[in-house]
Design brief:
Number of strands: 11
Structural class: mainly beta
Strand content: 35-45%
Oligomer: single chain
Shape: elongated
Number of helices: 2
Radius of gyration: 14 Å
């Protein structure tokens, strides 16, 4: 497992203040949880189940923070998975995205769907 802390997580005025993503692996499953010490987040947990035909997961999940997106990369023995999600700053600025939390600020994991996994159909969100 591991953790990722958003850039600006130490800045008082940042949407990403005190915000992190934690992950762990077991068997053919990756679990992600987004946490904030400042506010409750809606839909902040995600479990991805990899198809056994792609072999075991390797313990090398990487998270990259871009201006408008967060990219999560992880691998099995034969496949690289890429999950592309909106950045928290993008969510706050877009009323359509920010309303997805139904009263709470939505986690970036709210926007994970099977079609968010780019380039393959080897995993499913459970």
């Amino acid at each position: 497992g591991g953790a990722f802390h958003f850039q600006g997580s130490g800045q008082v005025s940042s949407t990403c203040r005190n915000r992190s993503i934690l992950w762990r692996y077991y068997d053919n499953i990756v679990e992600l949880v987004e946490l904030s010490w400042d506010r409750d987040l809606a839909n902040n947990a995600l479990r991805l189940c990899m198809s056994p035909e792609y072999g075991p997961l390797l313990s090398n999940l990487n998270i990259y923070e871009l201006a408008s997106h967060v990219v999560i990369l992880f691998t099995t023995v034969t496949t690289v998975f890429r999950l592309v999600l909106p950045h928290p700053e993008t969510i706050v600025k877009d009323p359509k995205l920010s309303s997805a939390g139904k009263g709470l600020q939505p986690s970036i994991l709210t926007f994970a769907r099977d079609d968010s996994l780019k380039g393959n159909n080897a995993a499913s969100i459970i």
